[in-house]
Sequence to fold (520 residues):
Amino acid sequence: MGMAWPVNGVVGLAFIAWIPLLFVRDFVRNNPEQFSRGAMVLYSYVTFLTFNLYTTWWVAYSSIEGGLMAFLLNSLFMSLVFGLAHIIDKKIFNERSGFFVLIFFWLSYEYLHMNWELSWSWLNLGNVFSENPNWVQWYSITGTLGGTVWVLALNLVLFSTIKKFIRSDKNIIAVIPNIIVAVAIFVTPLLYSNSLLKEDLPKDLPTVNLLLVQPNVEPYYEAYELNSNQLVHNMLSVVREYMDDSTELVITPESTIERSMWEHKMQRYSAIDSVIRFVGKNPQLDVLMGVSTRRAIGENEEVKAYARSFIKGKKELFYYKYNTALFISNNQALQFYHKSKLVPGVERLPFAAYLKPIQKFAIDLGGTTGSLGTSDEPKTFDFGNNRRVSPIICYESIYGELVGKFSSYGGGFIAVITNDAWWYESPGYRQHFSIARLRAVENNQYVVRAANTGTTGVIDNKGNIVSVSDFYTKTAIKAKIPLNNTPTYYAVNGNYLARFSLFIVGLMLVIAFSRKLRKE
Fold:
């Protein structure tokens, strides 16, 4: 499975990668006297730890201890889910009709893993097709969870075919029906995807002329050694070099200014004031930029576990710190969107009230660190003539359902502002860019990325790369893109496949528990 993973993988391996583990599961099930009760979890743990290490080893660049914790925990969650599916299949269905139990459990796991405080959805199985978006244009209906179903279903059918072939003394005639089913499962989504590729966006859509800035600031030292004015001067020097009279919207990376600023007095900061004055001299321009901000908590406002405190006079006051997308326009007041999907252990300590002792294991995966606040709802920014942009901050681009909500809130294209330089020259930043291609397919919209350094680029609504920057390069990309304000079925309905799977898994667990009670 690791060898199938983007960006240098052979994607077809994903359709056979689970078969060896399924044979291990069968052997354990058929020889219970040889194994302890938790054997399946232990064997699968070795498998999933290998998968996690092979695909995301680069996380350790930022923090060896934090990376190790991520590998161990994510592998544990995967093995527990696989082990539970194994138990339910055996107890309820006894291998007869429980063929797709694993699919329901895995879909439910991926969905739940997207929506709790230890979320790490980088390795959701549907992401394996990010380098092959032409295969999965139907993600506009199902999202990446449809790809998870595709991968597991074909693995299960091929596993069943091999087992039947062996049991029939290698009689090929006996497995012809299985082969037909396997071919149908593989080919049908490809044919449907090909038909969707022929559907173009309408010709009369509104457009926008963009400038995507890549300032190329070294994240570990230079970003903190330079003051805010120097960082903004560096950014504006790139803008001046590459912009022209047609440029309407400038987009700069996450954490363009890392120093935390109070939101109620942003104009007082000289760095922000210089950007506001630059926009004033170029009235056709709006700017979307990544900054670090903070907001004081009101007297009657609830103080949450991730709030920070400061002393004013003799009184202790509290505030929230944010990883923020700031929108600067000539015609509007300053607008803010606060990153809502935070990296666990980096931007917020999971279960903050209980896990303070493990804070030292935090991983630097880019952007502002420490326990942050969030926006409660998606927000889009209007840059004129009812044209709106969806501001997606870094790690949020991994979450298809979240990005789809921005589309349903009126966003005509997706702008990912990110800082991938933390991972150096590794698969990390390439995978992050690649996965954004799936967001384009899911929403039938263009995706643009402004990265601190590599990879800044433009992706069309079919997931194809239009333009891309080099890593460790100070540059900018100009682009004119159409805006599609019609949300897709997936953008409106989200991960409905997972919600259905959760219902089925819940029924299975109730049946298993009630049978145990009846037996006792």
